[in-house]
Each structure stands twice: as C-alpha cells, then as structure tokens.
C-alpha cells in the first residue's frame, strides 16, 4: 500500500479549473516532485494535501485513512513554506518549539523534542541564535526542523530552493536529499526546475494546466516521455 494517495483531485477557483482529476501515489520514505511551469497547479495541489485548500472532488489518503475532511493540524503533514516563515525575534530553539507550545506539550517534552529535531538537521549548536544570524541554507533547515518536531508522517516543501543563491542550490539540493533520506520521511516537493526534480526525486509528476501529464521515475520521464508536452518540457522532441 502506498503511504500517500492523491485520488482524482479537482479544484476550481471561480470559473478557473486549476486541478483537473489529479491522481498520484507516494511510497513510504520516498520523494515525489511536482514539476511544471508557473501556474500549472503545483502549489494548489500541495496546499490541498496540507488541508489549506478543500478540493471540489477527490480524496487524499494517508496510510489507508481518508484525511480529506480533516483540518490541517490533525493531518500529520508538515509544510515548509517558500520563505521559511521563521519568527525573527525568536531564537532557533524557540522557533522550532513554537508548534509544540500551541499543542500544549509539557516543558520537558518540548525541550527533548526540540533538541532531537535540531540534531536531525545538524543545528544543535545554533539553538540560541536568531534567524538573521544564519545562512539561507541553515534557515531552511530550521524551517524543516520546525516541521519535523511535530513528527509528521509526510513533509511538503514548496519551492525549497527559491530563496537561495543560485551557486548554493546544488549543494543544498544534495544536502536536503541526504537529510530526507536520514530522517526517512515521505516527502513531496514543488519545483519548476527540471534538474532540481531529477536530482532530488524518486518519482516525478509532470503537470500542465492542472493535469498530471506523466508520473514516473526521473529516468522514465527522460527516456520515455509519454506526451508531446512532456517531451517538449524536458527538452526533447518526441
Ligand atoms: P503553480 O504552483 O504551478 O505556479 P498555482 O497552484 O499557484 O500554480 O496556481 C494555479 C492557478 O490557480 C494560477 O492560475 C493561479 O493564479 C490560480 N490560483 C491559485 N490560488 C488561487 C486562489 N486562492 N484564488 C484564485 N486563483 C488562484
């Protein structure tokens, strides 16, 4: 059984159909990338999985449970925002602890879990610093720690490298891939950059105008593009 199943999800904003019957699945511990040009519906699909958007039709299933009607905070789905959304006036430890405090966790438990999360992203020695004192890549890891501390079963990342210097991107991509493998968490990324998708993913969904044009391994998509759109998008004539 797949860890997460997106089953025939559709969504319109007013008259505009943004997702048109999207179906995908992600295996436990693997990385799926939603790849496509700006406006094709990637972020809307990610936000639907997180529960910030209610689809008009279709289901989101995690470990066999239909979570379509659950509010975001009960879904065990972590969401890492594009700009990381860290609180500048809080220390790194306090930023990571934030979500736990909302959940009324005991102080000792908060301390233990924050320590574990910071260790996972290799930032233990940064606990007492402030976001502005960290590099872009380190801030991203804090944002990931803030999600992981809630022990989600799925991690969603919206364009995780957008805020980073182009020179840093490849290093960060490799580091993030290693981090996800180490944690072993099922993850879904959004990107418009095909090289990024190919570097990071076990599977890729190429999207176009709210439709999943092709879903497969990076190699599959490169070697056997199934539609003219996919062939064109990855730079190969059919
Ligand atoms: P992508 O992430 O692939 O760039 P989005 O999912 O952000 O695409 O957007 C897909 C389309 O839906 C775009 O045309 C966008 O303008 C529209 N859209 C996204 N969110 C809303 C919203 N809340 N209200 C109206 N239109 C929206």
UniProtKB/TrEMBL annotation:
List residues of the ABC transporter domain: 4-234
Annotated GO biological processes are: quaternary ammonium group transport
Q: Which domain of life is it from?
A: Bacteria
A cellular component term from Gene Ontology for this protein is: ATP-binding cassette (ABC) transporter complex
Q: Does the keyword Glycoprotein apply?
A: no
Q: Which UniProt keywords apply?
A: ATP-binding, Nucleotide-binding, Transport
Molecular functions (GO terms) = ATP binding; ATP hydrolysis activity; transmembrane transporter activity
Q: Which family does it belong to?
A: Belongs to the ABC transporter superfamily.
Q: What is this protein called?
A: Spermidine/putrescine import ATP-binding protein PotA
Q: Which organism is it from?
A: Alsobacter metallidurans
> Taxonomic lineage of this organism?
Bacteria, Pseudomonadati, Pseudomonadota, Alphaproteobacteria, Hyphomicrobiales
Q: Gene name?
A: potA
